[in-house]
Amino acid sequence: MLKIFPILFLLVGVSRGQDPVKNFCRRWGHQSTIVDRKLYIDGGQINWEGQGNITNPWLLYNDLDVVGAKVGMPQLYANWTHNTTIPSVSGGILWPDSVNKRFYSYGGDYTAGTPVEESQFFSYDISRNQWDSFGTPSVQSVSWGGGVGVSELGKGFILGGWLSNNSVPQWTGDPVATSNLIQYDMDQKLWKNSSGPDTTPKAEGVMVYLPASDTGLLVYFGGIIAPPGNGTTIPANMSTIHIFDISGGKWYTQTAVGTVPPARRRFCAGAAWSSDRSSYNIYLYGGLGFDQNGPGFDDVYILSLPSFTWIKFFDASTDGVPHHSLTCNVIDGQMLIIGGTFPLGKPSCDTPEAWGTHNLDLGKQSGSQWQRYQANLSYVVPPEVIAVVGGSSQGSATIKSPAAGFSHRDLQVYFAQTATIVPRTPTAMPTSTPSKSKLSSGAIGGIAAGCTIAFLTIFAGVTFFFLRHRKNKLASPSPLPPTDYEPQMTFPNSHNSIYSNGRESKIEPQQLDSIPSPRITEVAELSGSMVLNHELGLGIGSKSPQGPLAEFPGSR
């Protein structure tokens, strides 16, 4: 019976809030990942029209097989919300596990309050529509690290990131960046903490996975570095590329050349490759800048490997709208760029008709970089890359090494290999064990009948309340202070990582004693025609040539 009250609290609380689909304005600092052609969005902060920052309580997803009518982007759904035991964080990471139909949520800053005394490692079971706790991890939680999840391997990775009182329970002192690589084995339930490419603390860069070498390579670049001993942070050189061979457990560093992008942090990136693996192309978008580039960027660069050449793909120049703290997800031959915060304050909302979703045509097959999303669009190498590395849209690159040679001969061997990965099998997850009752069958029946009647009575009241107030203008959640969270960029004179190198521990999951969160909104597309829309090639605030967007019947 006690479990009814969380239901009532969530139904009433959410019903008084704004609709995350119809009332969308902006989102940033969130986490996203793809499992079975659904792009899940969790955490971060959101804005409603004319209101301050609010912690996002919803778990949303874009259906990558359903294109919103007249929107041109994957339809957004917001059918579920977190229950009260699941934190909403910014700057964390979601690691996908398509084999077990779930994803894991690691790290991030608590934007509403401080971390609990003992943080837990949560995973969302998509099939069962429930969150599971995998206990307390043996590594501390970092935020804004560069990470990636590799479902084929059943592993999650993150390099660097911040330790602070926003992410670590009972943390005291200034934020500190780390230099370590954290790994999580989804099948063995093992954490591993190992050294990074060097001892210099790092944060706010990006990491991508490439299917080269035996089981794959990790590539990291960008962000900030915090040299130990001088209490300062400096921009990471975008020509410095760190590579980690997963099977060998070894780091390498290679210098990239070409049109090297300006230094940046809190940007996003995704990788695609030709069918013959003769070129691996990493696309980055946007980010927050430094000094004269402080407001950030509205641009796209490609790092083509193994030539290690930077290529400019798109630059909005002075007409652009810089933004950062966003996510990139590659699907087929496209990269969906979602959200971001705008340091210059404009526009007031980020393409509300498309829920802050922008689609980059990675192969420029449409003739333009920004286009409407198409399901099942195969990747081809864009003309800008072909002009540098040779070959064709299907591959056959002729430049397969850096102009000055590889920094280590191992890299040449790795990029000549195609990763061979043994298929994983689903991992059995423990289920809750029903508690044993010593009551008589008659007593149990009476209690069950009473609970049923009580539940039906309360449910009828809640349903009436919900339907009665559904069309009224709803009050918004309590706003946070109207400023974006930025970590303090000062550090102690020495870096002291609290992680213990090489330590591993095994933690079994525990199903939360909770129920799936309630449905909160009908699926509907937004109305209106004001567009901040790279996809359509329009300027800020331009009118959509398609006219007002269609709405489903009954969406108001």
Describe the structure.
The structure is a single chain. This protein is mainly beta and 556 residues long. The protein has four helices and 38 strands. The strands form eleven sheets. The protein has a five-stranded antiparallel β-sheet, with no helix packed on it. Mean pLDDT is 78; it is low at 1-16 and 431-556.
List keywords for this structure.
556 residues; mainly beta; five-stranded antiparallel sheet; 38 strands; 10% helix; globular; disordered N terminus
What would the principal axes of the Cα set say about the shape?
A: globular
List segments where confidence is low: pLDDT < 50 over at least 5 consecutive residues: 1-16, 431-556
What is the typical, i.e. mean, pLDDT?
Answer: 78
Strand portion? 25-35%
Number of helical stretches of at least 4 residues: 4
Largest sheet: 5 strands, antiparallel
Q: Distance between termini?
A: 34 Å
Radius of gyration: 24 Å
Q: Could you give the count of β-strands? A: 38
Derived from helix and strand composition plus strand pairing, the structural class reads mainly beta
Question: Can you give the helix content as a percent range?
Answer: under 10%
Largest sheet, spatial ordering of strands:
9-10-12-13-36
